[in-house]
């Protein structure tokens, strides 16, 4: 079972992501964060296999969190989700340490597919 942390400042988005990811065999959401700082604390304490990050969050943004998680937990997969639809934003996320970038406009199921692919479930 792949352990997943969700980090998004919108409660509704976290609940929807939790529902979609939890419905997939092999994925277990073990923690949720409403800001970047909380996401790092959860990654350090829960040792997830995957962190799903919103790009725009209070405290530390998704790029900063991706870099911190990648440095501290190189084995952890990182998926960045964002409403931003610009190629340079995706490139920045990947350069910061994310394994994959998915636009929120692609839908929750696209995010779930990407998450499952990153942890091979």
TrEMBL record:
GO terms for molecular function: DNA binding. The modification 4-aspartylphosphate is found at residue 54. One of its GO terms (biological process) is phosphorelay signal transduction system. Keywords: DNA-binding, Phosphoprotein. Residues 3-119 form the Response regulatory domain. The keyword Phosphoprotein applies. InterPro entries: CheY-like_superfamily, NreC/VraR/RcsB-like_REC, Sig_transdc_resp-reg_receiver, WalR-like. It comes from the Bacteria. Pfam families: Response_reg. This is Response regulator transcription factor.
